[in-house]
Amino acid sequence: MSDKKWAEYALEAVSTAAKANEYFTADDVWELIDKAAPDGIDVREMGHVLSQAVKDEVCIADGRAPHEGPGHGQVLTRWRSLILEVDVTGTDNEDNYPDQPEGSGDLPF
Fold first, then answer.
1. Would residue 45 count as lying in a domain?
2. Residue 16, class by beta-carbon neighbours within 10 Å (0-12 exposed, 13-18 middle, 19+ buried)?
3. d(C-alpha 80, C-alpha 18), whole Å
4. Which domain holds residue 50?
5. Contact 80/59 with Cβ under 8 angstroms?
6. What pLDDT is recorded for position 71?
7. d(CA 86, CA 98)
8. Could you tell me if 23 and 81 are in contact, meaning their C-beta atoms sit under 8 angstroms apart?
């Protein structure tokens, strides 16, 4: 897979993560692309992919998050989605709004 093809694939994974999660990290994106870059792809390329996602208005840097793997205290950039897809039908209310009080899905607005 060429660098350009991989970058397109990785950018699609960023979009997928951003559509499904209000906040995510590069680790979440790596999980979507099997946590490993193909031979010849420098894993640091993810930084370029995320920069492109910002330019494409997919996400924006929104703070720091702890790294969930080896790295001993390493901190990752937390990204906030600008394209989050929220179920407005109310069928998935608990998953999209876990902090809402019981019955709040019945509000008339």
1. yes
2. middle
3. 8
4. 3-85
5. yes
6. 62
7. 13
8. yes
CATH number of the structural domain spanning residue 34: 1.10.10
pLDDT tens string for the chain (109 positions)? Answer: 678 888 999 999 999 999 999 999 998 998 998 755 666 677 788 999 999 999 999 999 999 988 776 666 778 999 999 999 987 565 554 454 444 445 444 444 3
Distance from C-alpha of 54 to C-alpha of 77, rounded to nearest angstrom? 13
Q: What is the DSSP letter of 41?
A: -
Tokens of 46: 């993810």
Residue type, 29: V
Return the amino acid letter for 36.
A
Query: Which residue, among 53, 61, 56, has the nearest Cα to 13 in the 3D structure?
Result: 53
In terms of Cα–Cα distance, which of 44, 47, 14, 48 is closest to 31?
Answer: 14
pLDDT the model gives residue 35: 58
User: In the structure encoding, which two tokens stand for residue 31, read together?
Assistant: 């999980």
Residue 106 has a pLDDT of 47
Distance CA 98, CA 56 (A): 29
Q: Is residue 13 part of a domain?
A: yes
